[in-house]
Request: fold
Amino acid sequence: MSKIKKIMAREILDGRAYPSLEVVIFLENGLSAKASAPSGIYYNTFEPKELRDEVLKNSSTPGVLRAIEVVEKVIAPALKGRDASAQEEIDDLLIALDGTEDKSHLGVNTIFAVSIACARAAAKAQKMELFSYLREYFNLPVSKKFPKPIFTMFNGGLYADTSLDFQEYLLLAREESVRENIILGREVYQSLGRVLRENGFDSDTGTEGGYAPNLDSSIQALEMIRAAAINSGYSMAKDFSLGIDLGASLFFDNKEDKYIFAADHQLLSRDNLTGIYQEWFLSQGVDYLEDPLGEERFSDWRELTASIGDRVIVAGDDLFASQSDRLRQGLKEKAANAMVIKPVQTGTLSEAVECVKLAKKYGYQVIISARGGETNDDFIADFSVAVGANWLKSGAPARGERVAKYNRLLEIEILCQENLQK
Ligand code: PGA
Ligand code: ZN
Reply:
């Protein structure tokens, strides 16, 4: 029994100089564990709500003082004396205490941080690594393969001050081991930075650590990543492939019924979108498209997936908002073939596990993803291994809050190789 003695909450910084929430759980046996919750940059109507204050004094940034108060006044008294290792009971209690559909009473970030801190405390009490503890607790099969990283190389859209429209231009690492994949990521990233500097482009970075120069088009961005990888000695398809997170909802003009891609000087209807996507993946080696279409348009997704889904990972992020009911609708409509799951968006750890199980049951590839406003919490690395995800997407192989997750994945690989993981 790992009885909860006290729960504390405090404000910490996320990677963008925004306030974020950290929760610490103290057990009666003297152990303690902490967890923090990331924030999104783009929110849609389907996702649960974060609890945030009005903007802070002298700042445009919303604070987390209400979330802290909720932890201390509502959650802590209800959880005091409970067993931290009874995860599903804890999660059910958090859901009941909240009592809303969209988790707006306690806030999804508040609930998530508490849920994860409980799991960490319980794992510690059982002297287990978090990924092994999660696997055992939720009775998950051991996957032979580790998740492969999807690295951000360029940031655009809301994620950087650049001409590029799309959120992220991505490098999918396809080597066997985590170690090889991380070496690949860092070599290509460094090589890309050199090419940018040599050609007079800006090599400053955006929110997720991707470079953020002003380029002429998406094709140029893809070409540069590909060249950087090939110059570093890697082969397309065998060692790596390319991807784009378009975040297409932001370009959809409802009145015109068209997508407006400004950097590419394209005003696209649904019909010629599929053509553009085919051009990209055929000529540039793109085999991963995240949110290529608006989040409201299941029927467009179905058409696209039917035409390119046998060759391309068509991943729903904003489309599903990590919600099982949105996924069910997507499954019915054959909308995609992969799901991005941001555990914090699901609410509790138990809900995150359920969501992955459902996606896997229907043969979807699973991408466990960080959010735009990350902290140094590396929970998603353990989670991605425990649930046997195909991919871990945490931004560039640069910036502390991004590499915390990749470094933890590397650590887990070593623990498993050395059989030290208990
Ligand atoms: P978010 O987006 O910041 O809105 O979570 C991140 C992403 O789509 O990769
Ligand atoms: Zn996304």
In short: The two ends are 19 Å apart (CA to CA). The mean pLDDT is 93.
